[in-house]
Amino acid sequence: MRELTYVARRTVEWREAPDPKVRSAGEAIVAPVAATACDVDSSILAGHGFIDPPFALGHECVAEVTDVGEDVTGVVPGDLVVVPWAVNCGTCAHCRSGLTAHCTSVPHMAMYGAPIGGSWGGLFSDLVRVPYADAMLVPLPAGLDPVAMASASDNWSLSWRLVAPHLRARPGARVLVVARGSIGLYVCDIARAFGASDVLYVDPDAGHRRLAESYGARTAEAIEPVPHGFDVAVEATGRVEQLGLAVRSLAPEGVCESAGNHFRPGELPLLDMYLTGVTLRIARDNVRAHIPDALDLASSGKVAPERVVSHVFDWEQLLDALPEKHLKPVFVRGITPGRASS
């Protein structure tokens, strides 16, 4: 089989690898059918990552199950499934408490798409081994389009976690979104669905702002801090100064969620944060715990994640199209774009 491998800035290549096989009774083999680039993949391809190439890329996809071990009960060959980015067993103490990104049955930070915590391959590969199939794989609900849900492995489900629980706890909260990619746009959609009274989306990209407006958000190219302006802020830029803007704009006891993958150090306005009494969360997401809720929301008809998909390419276009700058490209094979899961 082939693994799409990141080899240099804006450069990927196919590399041959042995076909993965089921090694134990609880494993599965899957074939990605709709895979997309995470916002952090875009940073890696631009040369801003912190891991030297080469390595297999990709950690967001809907896949078809092709083989399962004899103890797997949750899926069968032919099923369409969401493959979470973090490798997790589902049974250790961390997994049972929802901390699936910190599974103690595998090396720390074991994941697809980067050689952290071992080498697990990437979801832009022709075939992928899933070591804990019943714990990891989430069947795609009937009626959902694999293309629209290609990001459920990470960005779509992460976006649910960034804003939905806060709006449940604070009905009608005011939400600030400072972003550069798909996460911020998904957040706008989800915030509107959960009844935010105001959503302000800040992004220098005019096309992104138009998408945010289609979700009912106000938009701006840039802003100065808005003291006590928002109950919840989401920062997804990877720029520390933009994180500072977000926390400076919070109301007393406000919450800031950072999903920015900050590869560079910087300073935060700690005194301002202290005086306002803000909560800041910067965390590697335990996405497996949120995928079912995020898929339920997608099934409800209250959101439109398909609008964020900027391009649909054939699988064989990965070499040329992935290194290009696109908001949310999805690469497909074996399915017709727009097909709903059945």
UniProtKB/TrEMBL annotation:
GO molecular-function terms, A-Z: metal ion binding
Pfam family, one: ADH_N
Domain Alcohol dehydrogenase-like N-terminal: 25-140
Source species, domain of life: Bacteria
Domain Alcohol dehydrogenase-like C-terminal: 183-298
UniProt entry keywords in alphabetical sequence: Metal-binding, Zinc
Known cofactor(s): Zn(2+)
Keyword Zinc: yes
InterPro entries: ADH-like_C, ADH-like_N, GroES-like_sf, NAD(P)-bd_dom_sf
Name assigned to this protein: Dehydrogenase
